[in-house]
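Researcher: Here's a chain I'd like modeled. Treat it as a single chain, no partners, no ligands.
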Amino acid sequence: MLRVDRIRIGRLPALSFSVPDGECLAVEGPSGAGKTLLLRAIADLDPADGYVFLNGVERNEMRPEAWRRQVRYVAAEPGWWAPTPAEHMPPSGRTSRLVAALGLEPAILAAPVAELSHGERCRLALIRAVADEPAVLLLDEPTAALDAANALLVEELIRFECLAGRSVVLVSHDAAQIQRLAHARLQLAPSSRPASPPGDLR
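Model: Modeled as a single isolated chain. Structure tokens:
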């Protein structure tokens, strides 16, 4: 289980919520509300006051690299640092199956990253994130660059990851997608007033 306790992001009030194993929490709010900042803070990529727990262990009790192996952030604009996708993939027997599940050809793993479409890179970034089976997935608009057919393949993978017991935190502007995937919703409402009520967890 992922548990967030009184984390503070930008102008947001302190947020506390939990995501049980096997469930998907959708984070909603207008552009600039802090959705991406929240995911990055949970992933320990940006500093933030508050506490984050994985299965009862607070992240400061773990080495940063150990935390990030278990709590995996997938950015809307994924980064690449080697010439081909294959060089980014963790050792895992799942990779080839995931490539096929997301409608990609095996040869894409050896293709130059610079020659791939944005949608292909996004799907490969998701494969990179889930191949070694982290405990938590933090997904920032994972289907924004995809057509409807490929978006549904990604949704099916997200459902499978939930069925496998992973906790998923999903940022999406697609209300229908949230309806299909989310077990709970967190509405972010920024305020300049420190005494604002907490985020609406429904």
